[in-house]
Amino acid sequence: MVVFAHPDDEMGCSGTVASWTKQGTQVLFVVCTNGDKGTEDPEMTPERMARTREREMRDAARVLGVQEIVFLGYPDGELEDTRKLRGEIVREVRRFRPDAVLCQDTISRNPHNHRDHRICAMVTLDALFPYARDPLHFREFTQEGLQPHKVGIVLCWGTGQPTEFADVSAAMETKIESMLCHRSQFLERPSRDPNREPGEFMRQNARQIGEQAGFEYAEAFRKIEFRI
After folding, report:
1. In a 10 Å sphere around its CB, with 0-12 CB exposed, 13-18 middle and 19+ buried, how is residue 11 labelled?
2. What global pTM score does this model have?
C-alpha cells in the first residue's frame, strides 16, 4: 500500500513499485489530495486541474502496473492532522491488509518539505501505529467487519536518513514513462527548461542514490519496523 499527498508524488518510489508489480505484487495507491492547485496558469480552475491530475494519475498507475487507486479528494495544500483523514487511511489499511506500506517521510532530505507531504507522512504513520492495529481505535470500523491489521514494515521515501536502498535499474525506463503521464507537472509547465530532457533529472537523482548502494539506479528509504 502506497500513501502519498499529491498525484505525482508516487514518483519517489515508482521504480520500486514497478519492480514489485512485475513480480506479481498487488499494490494499492491512496492519494490524499486532488492536486487542484498544481499549476502556474492563472486561467486554470481548480476543478479542471483536479480532473486533469486524476486522469494523469490513473495513466501513471497503469504504466506502473497498479490496478487500484483510492482518491481521498482533499484540496491541494489543505491536508490537516484530523481524525477524519487518519480514519480514512486506517480504513484502507484494514480493508487492503498490506504486508508493507510506503509513504513520504516526515524527515526530508530537502531543507523544507511541502506541508502536505509532512502531514500525509505523519498521519499515515499514526494510522498504522497504533490506530489500524487496535480494535478499540475506530471501533466503528471493527463493528463493520474491518478487523485490525498490523503492518510490520514501513518504507519512507524522500528521506534525509536512508537506511534501505532498492535497485531500480531494470525499472528505470518504466519509472520515467510513468512520470511523463503527469504532463501538467513535468511537460507543460512554462518554467520547465525546454533544453532539458524531461526524464534526465530522474535518472540523475536515481544515479546519485545508486552510487551510495552500488547500483546503477536506486531509490532510498528510511525503514521503520513496528512490533507485530
Report:
1. buried
2. 0.94
